Amino acid sequence: MNRFRFDSKDSVKIVTAIIEGYREYIEHRLDRKAKMHISSAFAWTKGNFIESKIAEHSSDLKLSYKTAKAGLSWDYLQFSHKDSNILFLIKNAHYFNPDNFSYATLPTSTNRTGTKRTYLHELSQINNSVDFPDIAKINRVENTQQLSFFVSEQHANEDLQNLKKEYDEFHILTYEIDKALQISKIIHYLPNPQNNIAYEIEDLSRYIAGAELTDEERSIIAPEQEHDIIDPAAFDIGILDKENKASN
After folding, report:
1. 146 or 68, higher pLDDT
2. Which residue among 65, 80, 197, 248 is the one 20 to 30 A from 11 at the CA level?
3. Which residue did the predictor score with more confidence, 156 or 203?
4. Contacts 24+ apart (CB under 8 A), 42-46
5. Phi then psi dihedrals of residue 125, to 5 deg
6. Which class for 73: exposed (0-12), middle (13-18), buried (19 or more C-beta within 10 A)?
7. Residue 230 confidence (pLDDT)
């Protein structure tokens, strides 16, 4: 998978931006707690801070970015290299299952699988022409039962067709927050739409620096971990709402 790696200098800058964005999020939470009687809803903004920080570094990284929708109600940023035809986005590893990437992982004791995240599945179609390594072909056979979930979604919408013309590859970078509430792992993936598996391109965790938190910083974000406050971006709340209404 080495041929799919980003330039190491770019990877370092992206990792640094993720750490800086998370730290700014925590600083904002501390500020809001001091100035507001209730501020728990800001727990949903973590992804915005991280993506915005990468956008701030876009000129150094030679990146372009644009706003897109995850479902009907949640915006996020898509990034692309100006010198290549690669589209990528950032995901919280807490809700991401590389063995079944288009389905959200619910943060429960059973880690059950949630509703399908349509936008990830559709974006992964960009990789239909990617020549995955032999391991991908082997897993494709082993997961034939899982493939049956995706046969009915072969027709992409107009936006997807435009993306497939504009980009040759779609990548996902995930950040993992450990028990100390610090970002401890960042992984670069290439999702395969044929078997719904995201293959690890590179572990970027070695580039993490300055991620340590103080006790005060941990205290402001600990409640969201204890009470399983769910990031709506992870579950396509717009799509879930639509499906729930349709089923009633």
Report:
1. 68
2. 197
3. 203
4. 43/221, 43/224, 43/229, 43/231, 44/229, 44/231, 44/232, 44/233, 46/22, 46/92, 46/231
5. -65, -20
6. middle
7. 58
> Do residues 169 and 190 lie in contact, with contact meaning Cβ atoms separated by under 8 Å?
yes
Q: Which pLDDT does position 66 carry in this prediction?
A: 93
Picking from 90, 57, 62, the residue whose alpha carbon sits closest to that of residue 76 is 90
Q: Which amino acid is present at 195?
A: N
Residue written as token pair 């997807």: 160
Single-letter code of the amino acid located at 24: E
Q: Tokens for 217, please give them.
A: 């910083």
**Contacts with 154 (C-beta within 8 Å, 6 or more apart), sequence order:** none
Phi, psi of 73 (to 5 degrees): -130, -5
| pLDDT confidence bin for 245, thresholds 50/70/90 | very low
What SS3 class is residue 94?
helix
Domain ranges of the chain: 2-247
- Report the pLDDT value the prediction gives residue 141, as an integer from 0 to 100: 37
**CA-closest candidate to residue 130, choices 82, 198, 62:** 198
